[in-house]
Write a structure and sequence with these properties.
Elements: H1 36-45, E1 59-68, E2 87-96, E3 111-119, E4 122-126, H2 142-149, H3 160-169, H4 174-181, E5 195-196, E6 201-204, E7 210-219, H5 228-237, H6 241-251, E8 257-265, H7 267-272, E9 292-302, H8 306-311, E10 324-326, H9 330-346, H10 422-431, H11 434-448, H12 453-466, H13 468-490
Antiparallel strand pairs: 1-2, 1-9, 2-3, 3-4, 5-7, 6-7, 6-10, 7-8, 8-9
Helix pairs in contact: 2-3, 3-12, 11-13, 12-13
């Protein structure tokens, strides 16, 4: 194929006559400071990298649409759900959590599953994971949990002591920790895992009636996981395994889909629920709060440029259109601030002007002005203060959020011991099959054996509080690994 290339230019648009040779005083002479072509190239190169995400740094994304298949307007007035057959453009980003941008896709780690709906009432960002629960229930613990999963400040290595020290001191983590060490702890790519909004949200209908809800998206490709051995091999031979699998599937026309559901709980039910319905470390039993089908997510386009559409793709849980509101979920409340704030640090105060983040299906009209990287018309000559008498945008009472009552004493409430074991005990006894329990115990022991003895003992005690068989299974698996190590050393 013969190409007819465009003329190469500098970043200011000036045509370049020679891009292969620097401007020097003679063939052996020094460079000249007037070499604008070289300076333009090098100065930009020095600034190519932006801060990577503190969490969810390694990821992949794709684009497509959400289509409504069932009517839920009795629960919400959100326009994204307004009628059966309606399609809304979406962007979805998948990720690992603790690893850096260059880390392997096949590590044992939760997977991020964040969906951006480009609705006509602004963007709706539904951030979640591939598990319906999380490690902590109070956002004040979030930075400390993440630090325990990251690198030791002295050795700059992942540290089992840090990991198990935090887990065994904060028992609310054990529900998610257990999920992490089950077979689903290493999904076979992003297409073969479920997604969950995880948090409790509030839906409000056209008459102002509100209910609490949870969002689920179940993979239509079927659940597939990697065994630890295969995952370890792929981490060395193909660290971008999940990214490649998603990209190639879409490029080949094998568009992945997920069926979208909600769970609904009335305010009255929330008052009498035996657990805190806003506790992110717990689930709502589906036998009591069944899944209600809503629609389907379809991904049918890869990013044209990774940096522009994936690295700069930013999600903010506070971005909710009318009809969807936050609940008292403490972790959600913390994330309402945390996510947007990290984007302002990484991408700048005007990160929503970046095309992939822009709410392009509506018109942004506010009193935000200026700031680094303002690339819009900065709202022209419209008034930049409110209220005003010169035609600036005004609020509309029809978009007020629902009213609700709060009456309690302000204090720092300790929820560390808020029933950390009963749901997990049910998971161990009623959900996991015997062979799955055996693999779970082996996976836990394999990681735990690298921690110090007092931490191993503390972990076994914690697991025994969940169920005596769970603790015994891990204790036996640790003893087996210990004996194998002794045998191997004796043969040297």
């Amino acid at each position: 194929m013969r190409w007819d290339p465009e003329v190469l230019t500098t970043s200011s648009g000036s045509p370049i006559g020679d891009k292969l040779n620097s401007l020097t005083a003679g063939p052996r002479g020094p460079l000249l400071l007037q070499d604008a072509v070289f300076l333009d190239e090098m100065a930009h190169f020095n600034r190519e990298r932006i801060p990577e995400r503190v969490v969810h740094a390694k990821g992949a994304a794709a684009f497509g649409y959400f289509e409504v298949t069932h009517d839920i307007t009795r629960y919400t007035k959100a326009k994204v759900f307004s009628e059966i057959g309606k399609r809304t453009p979406i962007a979805v980003r998948f990720s690992t959590v603790a690893g850096e941008s260059g880390s392997a896709d096949t590590v044992r780690d939760p997977r991020g599953f964040a969906v951006k709906f480009y609705t006509e009432d602004g963007n709706w960002d539904l951030t979640g994971n591939n598990t319906p629960i999380f490690f902590v229930r109070d956002p004040i613990m979030f930075p400390h949990f993440i630090h325990s999963q990251k690198r030791n400040p002295t050795t700059h290595q992942k540290d089992p002591d840090m990991f198990w020290d935090f887990v065994t001191l904060r028992h609310e983590t054990i529900h998610q920790i257990t999920f992490l060490f089950t077979d689903r702890g290493i999904p076979d790519g992003f297409r073969h895992m479920n997604g969950y909004g995880s948090h409790t949200f509030k839906l409000v209908n056209a008459t102002g009636e509100a209910v609490y809800c949870k969002f689920h998206y179940k993979t239509d490709q079927g659940i597939k996981n990697l065994c630890p051995k295969a995952a370890a091999e792929l981490a060395g031979s193909e660290p971008d395994y999940s990214l490649r699998d998603l990209y190639n599937a879409i490029a080949d026309g094998r568009y992945p889909t997920w069926t979208f559901y909600i769970q609904v709980m009335t305010f009255a039910q929330a008052e009498t629920f035996r657990w805190n319905p806003f506790d992110l470390t717990k689930v709502w039993p589906q036998g009591e709060y069944p899944l209600i089908p809503v629609g389907k997510l379809t991904l049918n386009r890869n990013a044209v440029n990774y940096f522009a559409e994936v690295e700069q793709l930013a999600f903010d849980p506070a971005s909710m259109p009318p009809g969807i509101e936050p609940s008292p979920d403490k972790m959600l409340q913390g994330r309402l601030f945390g996510y947007a704030d990290t984007h302002r640090y990484r991408l700048g105060a005007n990160y929503r002007q970046i095309p992939v983040n822009c709410p392009y299906r509506t018109r942004v009209q506010n009193y935000h002005r200026d700031g680094f990287m303002t690339v819009s018309d900065n709202q022209g000559g419209a008034p930049n203060y409110f209220p005003n008498s010169f035609g600036g945008p005004e609020d509309d009472k029809m978009y007020l959020q629902s009213r609700y009552q709060v009456s309690s004493d302000v204090a720092r409430y300790n929820t560390a011991d808020d029933d950390n074991y009963s749901q997990l005990a049910q998971f161990w006894t009623k959900v996991l099959k015997p062979e799955e329990r055996s693999r779970l115990a082996s996976n836990v022991a394999e990681h735990l054996q690298a921690a110090q003895q007092f931490l191993r003992e503390r972990a076994v005690q914690l697991l025994t509080r969940v169920h005596v068989d769970y603790g015994n299974a891990v204790r036996e698996a640790l003893e087996k690994l210990k004996n194998q190590k002794i045998d191997s050393q004796s043969k040297l």
